């Protein structure tokens, strides 16, 4: 039996996937409200295929609880925020989850950390928690790290098809963990040690962050000298060994925008390119704001309440707003006393900011300028409704004449 601890964006799909493939699972979360919704058959966030996966799991072997229970294996999938001053990972949620597991786990059970952590977190935080109980790692309790590699909007597919890394203290324990994950995972399961698994996951997202930063810095350079960055990227990418990404309004989500800071915090003075990339990507909302002001001046728009921001999520076609560039942009506007803009996102059903709309037509009728910050399918399918508006497209999804870009 497997007990998945933490039923958020990662833990819930993982628990459901295991249960749907014949593994007996208990999903645990501290939130009684969330557990109650799951017990009532409610899917707690929007994700393609999650409803069907939920139905398949509940007809199989899954239960939901607010309590950790005795199990052969535990999968810890709780948040790992970072301290914005020190840039170090906050492992307190992971440690607390492990402590709750140690209260009930039988001898010989395996604790698998799925949460993304900085290299060395298991050694610094998890092992000491075990040892403080007078328990021995490798005998009383076994530790492993199997970081998730899925992205909102494609979670169900990627859970099945992506390769993943399993780090453990011994090959025998790694094989036992592999047996559970191979119940549903068709991708390659690579076995290694825990420290390597920790570093690999952080390096993957840091690599992507650095590549995005290059495109964003290129956009700033080209804008300063009146050049079209997208045309330059298009031509440069014809080289067989060049693949420059597209610039955008910033980097969001709980992986690419966060994981590189783990390396900056743990290796100060060494993670120099990583730090520069993070600063570039974090500066993009400010750059977008400056570009907005220039476009408003060019078009004689003086009232910011007639400006509308399309998109609140961190990427297209998901409801995830964590580290959203739009929210970062709104924060910039508030700091510069330039608020009052209207906001709309078809995927965000609850009000999370002022002047938020929930109907596209009403939103468009109340604005003269539209800033596209997320390329949801909805806006791609309704481009004709933008005619007559001043359009600033940070995602390059609009081809209407007169559209402004980064």
Please give the structural blueprint:
Layout lengths: L1 E4 L5 H10 L4 E4 L3 H8 L10 H9 L3 E4 L7 E4 L15 H11 L6 E5 L7 H11 L9 E5 L9 H7 L2 E5 L2 H11 L7 E4 L1 H31 L4 H8 L22 H8 L5 H27 L8 E4 L14 H11 L6 E3 L11 E2 L2 H6 L3 E4 L4 H4 L9 E4 L10 E2 L1
Parallel strand pairs: 1-2, 1-4, 2-3, 4-5, 5-6, 7-8, 9-10, 9-12, 10-11, 12-13, 13-14
Antiparallel strand pairs: 6-7
* Overall spatial form: globular
The low-pLDDT segments are none
For the record, the count of structural domains works out to 2
Global mean pLDDT:
94
User: What's the total number of strands?
Assistant: 14
Find the structural class using helix and strand composition: alpha/beta
């Amino acid at each position: 039996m497997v007990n998945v601890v933490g039923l958020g964006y990662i833990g819930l799909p993982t628990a459901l996937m295991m249960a749907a493939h014949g593994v007996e699972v208990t999903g645990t979360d501290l939130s009684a409200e969330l557990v109650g919704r799951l017990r009532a058959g409610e899917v707690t966030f929007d994700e393609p295929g999650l409803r069907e996966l939920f139905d398949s799991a509940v007809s199989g072997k899954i239960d939901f609880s607010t309590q950790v229970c005795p199990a052969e294996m535990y999968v810890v999938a709780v948040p790992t925020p970072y301290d914005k001053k020190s840039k170090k990972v906050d492992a307190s949620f992971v440690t607390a989850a492990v402590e709750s597991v140690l209260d009930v786990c039988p001898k010989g059970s395996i604790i698998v950390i799925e949460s993304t952590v900085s290299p060395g977190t298991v050694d610094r935080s998890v092992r000491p928690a075990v040892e403080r109980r007078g328990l021995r790692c490798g005998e009383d309790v076994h530790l492993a790290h199997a970081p998730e590699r899925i992205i909102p909007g494609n979670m169900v597919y990627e859970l099945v098809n992506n390769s993943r890394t399993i780090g453990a203290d011994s090959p025998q324990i790694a094989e036992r963990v592999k047996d559970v994950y191979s119940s549903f995972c068709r991708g390659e399961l690579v076995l290694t040690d825990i420290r390597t698994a920790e570093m690999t996951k952080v390096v993957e997202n840091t690599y992507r962050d650095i590549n995005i930063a290059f495109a964003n810095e290129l956009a700033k350079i080209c804008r300063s000298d009146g050049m079209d960055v997208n045309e330059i990227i298009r031509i440069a990418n014809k080289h067989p060994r060049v693949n420059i990404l597209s610039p955008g309004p910033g980097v969001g989500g709980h992986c690419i925008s966060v994981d590189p800071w783990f390396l900056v915090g743990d290796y100060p003075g060494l993670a120099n390119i990583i730090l520069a990339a993070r600063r570039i990507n974090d500066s993009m909302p400010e750059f977008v704001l400056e570009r907005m002001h220039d476009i408003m001046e060019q078009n004689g728009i003086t009232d910011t309440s007639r400006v509308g921001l399309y998109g609140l999520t961190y990427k297209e076609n998901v409801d995830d707003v964590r580290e959203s560039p739009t929210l970062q942009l709104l924060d910039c506007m508030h700091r510069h006393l330039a608020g009052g803009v209207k906001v709309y996102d078809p995927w965000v059903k609850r009000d999370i900011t002022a002047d938020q709309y929930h109907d596209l037509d009403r939103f468009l009728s109340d604005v003269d300028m539209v800033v596209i910050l997320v390329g949801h399918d909805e806006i791609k399918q309704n481009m004709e409704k933008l005619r007559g508006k001043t359009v600033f497209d940070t995602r390059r999804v609009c081809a209407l004449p007169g559209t402004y870009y980064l």
